[in-house]
Write a structure and sequence with these properties.
Elements (H helix, E strand, L loop, with lengths): L1 E2 H14 L5 H13 L3 H6 L4 E2 L1 H15 L4 H5 L1 E4 L2 E4 L12 H11 L10 E5 L5 H9 L4 E6 L2 H13 L6 E5 L14 E6 L14 H4 L14 H13 E10 L7 H8 L3 E7 L5 E7 L6
Parallel strand pairs: 5-6, 5-8, 6-7, 8-9
Antiparallel strand pairs: 1-2, 3-4, 9-11, 10-11
Helix pairs in contact: 1-2, 2-4, 6-7
């Protein structure tokens, strides 16, 4: 039998030895999940004994985390844009950096000088749905079409849309790129957004174990990491409304190549935005026409 305090200390040391960043915080999150307690409640109950089935389950979770399984899939949730989303094995886990993409798109859809009455958004590669759902929650007039070739991701996005009360405005479709999006929306999308695969294929094997836990097709961007960026830039003229935007997440070494790719596709007002670690993260471009 161990107390809450003892378990956090011991498992924090164990996870640190396994190379887990923020090891003590991970230990707290896992124990809180087992006991149904918040972080502050753990410390208020630091002398509470943990034994039996609770202790067995906690040890199993700590072993899984030490082996490199992401914390998010172990506890089944992750925080994104101040909300909690369900995540699960076999679906790409959203990272905090993608919040910068959501912020950027919100800025495109809600400029200070005008507001679109009913913005139409298409998201390619929705994963757990954090982008489309966050946009629909933040902008109550947004209607979004989100696609993913992974059927598990499609179902998970639907559950997260329902969880946050926007399932009537977030239409989740199974398929590659924009192929599942209804044809009548061609030329009418206000923002086409994606956090596409952008890891070069020859770099996949060298990724940290925790990242390699994600589905390979959600990471593999082809030989140069730009296969999907290239496809989206080529599709933008067919799908974007005049004055509509293409907004994508990029790798830290793609801050020059993706803007050039956008410009070559005929997109204007191409800009690159850095994340909060001062790394290149978001590129946007506007299809000519509409209000400047």
């Amino acid at each position: 039998m161990k107390t809450v305090r003892e378990l956090i200390a011991l498992s924090g040391e164990y996870l640190a030895e396994k190379g887990i960043e923020s090891a003590r915080l991970n230990a707290e999150r896992l124990l809180g999940d087992v006991l149904g307690l918040s972080r502050i409640e753990l410390y208020l109950q630091a002398d509470r004994p943990v034994a039996g089935a609770e202790l067995d389950r906690y040890r199993d979770l700590v072993r899984r985390r030490g082996a490199g399984e992401p914390l998010q899939t172990i506890i089944g949730t992750t925080g994104f844009y101040s909300r909690e989303f369900k995540v699960e094995e076999g679906v790409f886990i959203p990272r905090p950096e993608t919040e910068r993409l959501v912020e950027t798109v919100i800025g495109l859809l809600t400029p200070p000088d005008r507001r679109l009455i009913a913005p139409r958004v298409a998201e390619v590669g929705c994963g757990s749905g954090v982008i489309a759902v966050s946009l629909a929650v933040e902008i109550p007039t947004v209607e979004a079409w989100a696609t993913d070739p992974n059927p598990r991701a499609v179902e998970l996005t639907r559950r997260n849309a329902h969880r946050h009360g926007v399932d009537a405005r977030v239409h989740v479709l199974h398929g590659e790129l924009l192929h599942p999006v209804p044809a009548h929306l061609r030329g009418k999308i206000d923002v086409l957004v994606s956090n596409p695969p952008y890891v070069r294929r020859d770099e996949l094997a060298g990724l940290p174990a925790e990242v390699r836990h994600d589905p390979a097709d959600a990471l593999d961007g082809g030989d140069d990491g730009l296969d999907v960026h290239r496809a989206l830039a080529a599709a933008a003229p067919r799908w974007l409304a005049p004055g509509g935007w293409l907004a994508v997440e990029i790798g830290a070494d793609q801050g020059e190549t993706v803007p050039r790719l956008f410009a070559a596709a005929g997109l204007a007002e191409v800009t690159m935005t850095r994340d909060y670690n001062d790394l290149p993260r978001v590129v946007v471009g506007r299809w000519p026409g509409g209000d400047a």
